[in-house]
Design a protein that fits this description.
Length: about 450
């Protein structure tokens, strides 16, 4: 493969074949969504000392002895500007892995994070249910899969750069849609089924619109203004849900210079991201409830069955990532509905704020998760802080206008001769004045214009 990305959720660089660092990366990726370890590069992507095959093999064997249980991995050559380097591909594991000293790590952005006791227990519980995706669906036959839907998926997959498929049966097995005999799995039926709701009634979506701010009908009694039941494979459900919400959204316009811009009641990306997340991450083992979209006069609520998975909490929701349904997520990624893992929540918050709305709110219950988008829009006032900003803060705001956001690392690169503490105070000052909004925490923190 050719290397194009920077270190992140599923990619890390190691400058040397250090056994301890390699063991930590093996455990962190296996406990998360998997990833690629590239040897011989520093964190900026610059080549370091040459690492020979024998050295890498010895380090990997030694690192595996520090993992409990051992972490499966595969060698993968990686093409870089410096030549072909050694890569180690680590798949997501159905097991919970630790180091031999008892530490349990997981990949968090571009670093390996140590989990607490409660997080370890929650991750272990999620690992134990992950194989539900590849369970054979009782009563389902190969002809319950829709060839047209599969062809559409293959076409989208090729447009994203994947090679043309020569053996369809092998691909369906590899992505978990069928077993070796071609019998459909949970993933296969949900992604490609002719009628998934015949096997999983809970996989549909219910849309309800209420005329006011309470779940009541036009006359104040029990009822609603519109109710739709959305069915089909997951890709169709996402599209149908978006179309229904868009039909019911108020659409206005604003004039910017000589051009007329459409202004929707809610930012398009925020709505679509909330819908895709609900479909991709709900707990499909819960059979008594479907995803619910509730549109009120002042807000849009999207309720997804199933609590937060693994070690995800409301406090780390922005910067962390863990998929309850990794194969479904990968399928929707290949379809083009999910652009990059772990970035959607950030963008959802940013789009809402930039459009003049309050940030979305999130409510986590033991068996459900709710995203609420408010349609209240405020015209931002002209700030009176410009004259009192220092030169560093001015440069930071110019960077945000050009790039959309700034991280602590970005700010340090803009001002390399200034102490980290001074830069931290600069950004905290901008947050306190209401100039920028802080999103995330720790290494996942970034700042956007408010």
């Amino acid at each position: 493969m050719a290397l194009k990305n920077k270190p992140g959720q599923r990619l890390t660089f190691l400058p040397t074949a250090d056994v301890a660092a390699l063991a930590e990366c093996l455990v962190a990726f296996a406990n998360g969504d998997g990833g690629l370890i590239v040897l011989g590069l520093d964190e900026t992507g610059q080549a370091t000392a040459t690492i020979w095959d024998e050295e890498a093999e010895g380090a990997l064997r030694a690192a595996a002895r520090h993992c409990r249980p051992p972490v499966p991995s595969q060698w993968q050559p990686v093409e870089t500007k410096q030549g072909v380097l050694i890569g180690i591909n680590v798949p997501r594991s159905p097991d919970l892995h630790s180091l031999d000293d008892g530490r349990v790590l997981v990949r968090s952005g571009d670093w390996n994070r140590l989990l607490s006791g409660d997080e370890i227990r929650n991750l272990a519980a999620s690992k134990n249910t992950a194989e539900f995706e590849t369970d054979i669906v009782p009563g389902a036959r190969p002809d319950d899969l829709n060839p047209d839907t599969i062809r559409e998926y293959l076409g989208m997959r090729e447009r994203r750069g994947a090679a043309k498929v020569s053996d369809l049966d092998q691909l369906l097995f590899e992505i978990g849609a069928t077993d070796r005999e071609g019998n459909p799995t949970t993933v296969g039926i949900l992604l490609f089924g002719k009628n998934p709701q015949a096997f999983f009634p809970q996989s549909g979506v219910v849309f309800v619109k209420f005329p006011g701010v309470e779940p009541r009908g036009p006359d104040g009694g029990i009822g609603y203004g519109r109710r739709d039941e959305l069915t089909g494979p997951l890709a169709r459900i996402v599209e149908r849900a978006w179309n229904v919400v868009f039909e019911e959204m108020r659409v206005g316009a604003t004039v910017n210079g000589l051009s007329r811009e459409e202004l929707t009641e809610y930012p398009r990306f925020a709505v679509r991201e909330a819908l895709v997340n609900a479909v991709a991450h709900r707990d499909y083992r819960i059979s008594g409830r479907r995803i619910e979209i509730r549109m009120y006069a002042d807000r849009l609520e999207i309720i997804s069955p199933g609590g937060l998975p693994g070690y995800i909490t409301l406090d780390n929701l922005v910067e962390e990532h863990f998929s309850r349904n990794p194969r479904l997520v990968h399928g929707l990624y290949q379809w083009g509905y999910i652009e990059e893992l772990g970035l959607g929540i950030d963008q959802m918050i940013e789009d809402m704020v930039q459009a003049g709305h309050d940030p979305p709110t999130f409510q986590a219950m033991p068996h459900s998760f709710t995203v609420t988008l408010s349609n209240k829009r405020e015209r931002p006032s002209v700030p009176r802080w410009t004259h009192s900003m220092n030169e560093r803060q001015t440069r930071a705001l110019a960077f945000i206008r050009e790039n959309g956001s700034i991280t602590n690392r970005d700010y340090k690169q803009l001002c390399p001769n200034v102490s980290t503490e001074t830069l931290r105070r600069d950004l905290a000052d901008l947050v306190e004045r209401g100039v920028v909004l802080k999103i995330g925490s720790k290494k996942g923190t970034n700042y956007i214009l408010k």
